[in-house]
Amino acid sequence: MVTLAEVAQHAGVSASTVSYVLSGKRTISAVTKQRVERSIQELGYHPNAGARALASSRSNIIALMMPLRTDMYVPVMMEIAIAVATHAREHGFDVLMLTGEEGPAAVQRVVGSGLADAIILMDVELDDARLPLLRASGRPAVLIGLPAEPGGLTCVDLDFAEAGALCATHLAGLGHRDIVVIGEAPAVYERKTGFAERTIEGLRGRAQELGLRVLHRPCEGSYAAVAGALGQVFTERPGVTGFVVQNEQALEPLLSLLRQDRRAIPEDISVVAVCPEQVALQGSIRLTSVTIPAREMARQAVERLVAKIAGESQGEVFLLEPELVARASSGPAPAGG
Amino acid sequence: MVTLAEVAQHAGVSASTVSYVLSGKRTISAVTKQRVERSIQELGYHPNAGARALASSRSNIIALMMPLRTDMYVPVMMEIAIAVATHAREHGFDVLMLTGEEGPAAVQRVVGSGLADAIILMDVELDDARLPLLRASGRPAVLIGLPAEPGGLTCVDLDFAEAGALCATHLAGLGHRDIVVIGEAPAVYERKTGFAERTIEGLRGRAQELGLRVLHRPCEGSYAAVAGALGQVFTERPGVTGFVVQNEQALEPLLSLLRQDRRAIPEDISVVAVCPEQVALQGSIRLTSVTIPAREMARQAVERLVAKIAGESQGEVFLLEPELVARASSGPAPAGG
DNA sequence: GTGAAAGCGCTAACAA
DNA sequence: TTGTTAGCGCTTTCAC
């Protein structure tokens, strides 16, 4: 293994000079710099991560804590994780992947040991057990999601209330009066992550202003569950003309069932989805949707975190402005109402 | 920050004793051990990861290199990643997530710096640029996937050839004579990851033995692409009665289109999928399938890697035996042929 | 069964 | 602009 000392010797300079060439924390003459860089090349030197972390008390690692449930919401999570890793690298950080299984203790472990300089928490619950530990640790942290009490922590999330409101506005603008929301699985609401609730609240508020009638149905993503929900919905609300769907898994079953039921989209029924753009585009019909900007959330989370590590930022809540893109799945409410 | 020295002082023992209590690498009297453990508790001590890595030249970190493409094959990748992290923790390792963007250089970086003790590579291509670097580094590594030249490297993968063969056997056993394979997107074949090719080869070989006629169609996962492929297929092979699908995305569109086409499953058409179990179970019909055992692959990869880190294992190829589970989507070939 | 002490490879004062 | 040096907190050999 090549060490900094060997590089120094090979280049005929002191160890600190090599270190400073690497870090750029002090001005080095062009010649010296070149000599050192050449030696680094020739010897194939890689700074030892452990030694560096010990001496500088910075590991240049960000911990990313994933959700507890593997099955849920998967594409978004994956997209966020990859984007976090990518942006972290741009700032010289690597990403340590923590799963939920270890529980809140994982926070203490990686932070207490100095393994990670900072943490990003995904899938934050309203009253998340990890938050007290995080606050106590004093380490920089960013939450992707919005707990009930952000108090001092930095949060990045989509403004789901506004997302819901946008759906209501869009459908109302097209003349719909009676709409149904197919929501996430009941388990999601039970876990109290908040985003699903915020969506429906925002939607309900706007619906009231606009005189829309709303029925909300949490629903599993399986074909059978969607079929069941749909059956009930059409019984309870025969006049429904608009669907808002916040449940990736339920989307294809829903479209498929409506088709079987000879209800044309968007002529008879309009559908608006809250989902990642990719999902809105890949199905049997291009869906009008409010995009969940996974990458942008990841980017912001990393930027905020890096700023905090550098001591340049305080706890704040950043809600991304949602955008509704009208595509082929929504249109004017049918005349007969 | 609490250090080992402080714990030692608090417990009235030497630093090395505390270290040995922690590592268990030498016998300690019960009393001493208890005293030390109490001090650790009381002071809230966490061993410093950097110092530990420096002194022991072991980081207790495994690097997991994800695929280059975010969009492809996502649920399986996510499942593997989570399972790798979980099993790694069981062996005291954390997992560093590397994305493909950094390219093969990432291998050198994490391994050269001692950041990671070992690497797991996902989404391995037949002629993967990372492999020479990996071999040169001499670090323990496990590939999930099977390159053209494993030479000395440990590989874990599903025996896709056998998976393909199982599909042929199953359909032949039900009396089908004319089958179509809906494969992965052309891009997957172009990338030469090999698994898709191995499947079709295994299937073709068995099909020949059993007198099956086979048409293979790579296909994008979009609804439109599947519709196009299906149209062609029924023109070229009007007598087809069996489909084998190795393309998660294409599954729902296919089922939906067959339904629209008034072809009943399994009465008119049998469908066998190669996919994760979850995918086979969640759709509109429970699919006969060969399971892609993501978790098992992850588990094996970690076990092999840990063995290699401990110096107990050499390079070997482990192909997991596939299993076909007959469910509702396959049945006897229709009588009329 | 326990302690003393020499590093591990690097960073960052302090000096020049 | 560069060099000298004292640690960073831990592991592990050597000694008892």
TrEMBL record, chains A, B:
GO molecular function, one term: DNA binding
Entry keywords, A to Z: DNA-binding, Transcription, Transcription regulation
Pfam families linked to this entry: LacI, Peripla_BP_3
Positions of the HTH lacI-type domain: 2-56
Origin superkingdom: Bacteria
InterPro entries (alphabetical): HTH_LacI, LacI/GalR-like_sensor, Lambda_DNA-bd_dom_sf, Peripla_BP_I
DNA-binding keyword on record: yes
Keyword DNA-binding attached: yes
PANTHER family: LACI-RELATED TRANSCRIPTIONAL REPRESSOR, LACTOSE OPERON REPRESSOR
UniProt protein name: LacI family DNA-binding transcriptional regulator
Organism: Streptomyces cremeus
